[in-house]
Amino acid sequence: MSNEKGPLLEMRNIRKDFFGNQVLTDINLTLHEGEVIGLVGENGAGKSTLMRILFGADMIRETGGYGGEIRMDGQVVHFNSPFDAIAAGIGMVHQEFSLIPGFTTTENILLNREPKKRTVLSEIFGERLDTLNRTEMDERAANAIEMMGVSIDRNMIISDMPVGHKQFTEIARELSKEQLKLLILDEPTAVLTEKEAEALLASIRGMAERGIAVIFITHRLQEILSVCDRVVVMRDGYVVNESKAEETDVYEITRWMVGRDVKLTEAEDEGRSFENANTILKVEKLWVDMPGETVRNVNLEVKEGEILGIGGLAGQGKLGIPNGIMGLYHSGGRVIFEGNEIPLNSPRKCLDSSFAFVSEDRRHVGLLLDESLEWNIAFPAMQIHDEFLKKYLGGLVKWRDEKAIKEVTDKYIEELAIKCTSSKQKAKELSGGNQQKVCLAKAFALKPRLLFVSEPTRGIDVGAKALVLDALKKFNRENGITIVIISSELEELRQSCDRIAMVSGGRIAGILPASSTLEELGALMLSQVI
Amino acid sequence: MNEKTIEKKEKGAFGKFVDSFGLPRLIIALFLLLLLILAPFVGADLPTQISNIIARFSWNGVLVLAMVPMVHSGCGLNFGLPLGIISGLLGATLSIEFGFTGPVSFLMAILISTPFALVFGTGYGWLLNRIKGGEMMIATYVGFSSVSLMCMMWLILPYKSPNMVWGMAGKGLRTTISLEGYYDQVLANFLAIRIGNFEIPTGTLLFFAVLALAIWAFLHTKTGTAMTAVGSNPVFARAAGINVDRIRMLSVIMSTWLAAVGILVYEQGFGFIQLYMAPFYMALPAVSAILIGGASVNKASIMNVIIGTILFQGIVTMTPTVMNNMIHMDMSEVIRIIVSNGMILYALTRKTEGSR
Amino acid sequence: MNKTSKKKVNTDMGELMRRGSVPLMFILICAVCIPLSGLSPNMLVNEIVTRMGRNAFLILSLLIPIMAGMGLNFGMTLGAMAGEIGLILVSDWQIVGIPGMVLAMIISVPISVLLGFFCGKILNMAKGREMITSYIISYFINGIYQLVVLYLMGSVIPIRHTSIKLPRGYGIRNTVSLLNMRQMLDNLIPLRITLPGVGEVKIPVMTFIVIAVLCFFIVWFRRTKLGQDMRAVGQDLGVSRDSGINVERTRILSIIISTVLAGFGMIIYLQNMGNIATYSSHSQIGMFCIAALLVGGASVDKASIGNVFLGVVLFHLMFIVAPRAGAAITGDSMIGEYFRVFVSYAVITVALVMYETNKRRAKSRESERLREAQMEEEG
Q: Rounded to two decimals, what is the model's pTM?
């Protein structure tokens, strides 16, 4: 790439924090016309936040803006909304489709940018009564599709299309914008078949030849190497490495992605071995229809008394495993607990078999936001084990025992150091970390034999993180409870678990002891990514 | 969430009070107070007025109470109240048809209406479980459809009692049936207190109190707790092993049965059974009463029922007298329509309750 | 490939069956009731033609909010009230015939726009439960309407003619005669045609022309930018907002247009009837129009002009023959009256239930696909 014209995009010292939580630190990124860079990093490394800043997302402004400056063609720019960014020539294809299901490809490509014809009525009532110029729409859509180099049916209704074509429609929409100079592709190949992905890579090269710069975000490192000029690796809000694609390889990138400072990578290996322990839970051929976290054909064994970690990238299906076993999403296959088969799709049966689950979705699944802590903590135990109830008339009337409920709540408030005004406080008024502790208390109160904990530290501050993980460990050690922790943070899994299963592409890619290096785990994590 | 708490802190004590009490409820309460103060000045007899309010409260209380179980389980406001009312009407007419009289006829009416309420409630609950999210609109039309279906039935069913059928044709039920000799005022006269113009229908109030207490007690049991949890967050409840559909079904059956009993209580106070299109518009006043009492689309308490019914019935009874005496214009009907529907609109548009 | 295409045909057939089931049921009801009613073909055809002219415009006004994803607009009653207010004022001013109608329409426009704006604003605050909200709005505004017509007209708003005023000096009578406007539009171009086997049929040519113009307007409107935006908003609010469409404004506009059209429709309806039932004309009109549209095969999220006309014919055929057929079977004419009311409500109930269950069916399909994929994998 020649530098004569100066860079198209320069991001200088970009910083961003969410309420004091630093997520991006001094990011510098330069991009030239017609250049393709690959942006890689684990979930939470800061890729999405960086792209949101570049694209002027509302959410950035609402959380206090960002530090540093963005220049396009040498001019400092400040986007107040995605529309500003689009006007400046930036296009973005998001992971979630942004398409109208009942519209044709053409209509979607030109959504809200349709060429129009003036009519008599529009002269009077304004331009919204202009009629659409269908012939010109067709032409422009056809041009955009041709530019992409992948042929899709212009007149097909989106809801009838295979996913891949939806993705191409989105890309064609960005290409149809005449001012487009920079295209951001956020994991575009995740939904594509191998063939379609190849076509997309070819079309990215085509775009670059036309002078469009591309930022390509993906977890498929092979794709990055084959199509990008440069690879930028992010980790924990920093750019940790930037190198030419031809000068690096998959192994090196993986290491950059997962590597931590040496002193942190010391896994707490107590050398507990469960080789000879009983298999407490056996999962066979499990599939789970959890949107965005689909599980395909998982086989897994959990040993009695261990803490098993399940790791993997977002969207690969690790969250689907506990949600499917616990019956919260539709699933199939076999789950055998201590030799008895547990029927699927029935939360009650799981809870009766003394499973418990702390959901990753605290606000929607984990808590009764509008109710008191007492209710939140005591409710499942009350319903499943008939605890905290006074029985009258020979058990016919089961009356809520407010005193017992308060007692157990106060016990857990103290034990887990939940910060609240009283046990009567509403759950929605607590901070994220304390809400998470309430969720744990709820599960502990069930006195489970097997506990699933999903993303225990998501969205909570550092202090609370340590507390939550310690509480889990203590629960495991003191009561001999088998725990399965599902988390995107490898570091966290290595510190708390005995074994770690890595999920990739909806399947278990492999199980390693927690003392394995991050590189080994990282390689498994990326092995079958879809 | 953060901003909201800050906002709340900035508001003074009065603001907090308005927040907790609800602005519309405050306005309505003040309006009723104004009417009560004005009443003596425009020549209305206050004791009579207050007796009136109490009487009408006693007639309507149970019908409003019938909202509570369904709101608790998250089925929304029970616009399908007419379905329960129809069960009650079937009980009432069959009780008379079978020749029961006096207080026994009231008891029998409740007994006979119970199986109908159970059957209708089950069907209605099954339907509502299939259309989660669209309950209120469909409930409205289930109510309407059932009322118009029963219109045909009242004509066709082989009722014979001469006190109920059209005299000329000898068949088909009349639109209004007098309850004299049956259960007219049976509850109201029980331990009734009369001091001059001031009257208290003690029996009816006690009957309401017993039912209200029963519901209150139910909500403190294991199943009642589960019902509240289902209404508060159905996903949480499901994750905690609750059979959400079954709990919802139970709440619908309870609401339907309460509506059946509610209409019987109403009739014993009013003195007549009203058939055909009469149950049609009975849902809206009950819905708005509980909302005026401070309930929302997914939260309601016994206190909301009591306060709401008093305020709503207070306005309904007081406006005509006071208005008539003051400006010689009876605008009470119009005011009732605007207030009650305005209240429902207010509740429907509250964002905080719009989890769907 | 073959398997999927076969499946597609199957779902299409299922879709067709679902859509067609309601009209089919009505055809059956009519087929049974027509012979029983003993009405002559001549009478039937004349009645249907008249009712087509009377109701089609009103029902057409429902199409645009459906397009914008706001469901069945129970708030069309608002427009009906605006139309009535226009007619009441015009008949007080003694402006007769077509000019009177046109003036009434002109008066109704600002009222409709105002009410439609109010309704749209409220509906934007109650997304996801538009129907129940618009239904309650119609009751609420009915209260306001009564306040205006029963108390303010004659006391605040000048009403001169005692023929429409209540004897007490203010408020409008229960019925306002539109004798000098009666069927003026219908008879503007008189035409009677003779059909073989049916006899002479009177055609309200001008009314049909007006309806045809509205149909063309709707077809044209779908092709405008605003129409396209409404379709987009109706299908996915979030995506439309992200693409820069002003979602709130678009939704409000769809309700305003619908309300204004309903106002015109009501005026056409009432000129055919020849009098206004001041306090009840509008109260049932929304329900009957919605029922007719659904009978024509429309659903909560999809309706076409064809549904309107099929609906008018089938629904009103049932309406005409049901009371007589009921009387013929049971000897009681009231049975038929109640039957047709029941059918109207039942048809709306069924349509609403079908709409909600379809929404859920779409979800379960995904699991099915996943299970199949796993089966295939295992061989």
A: 0.84
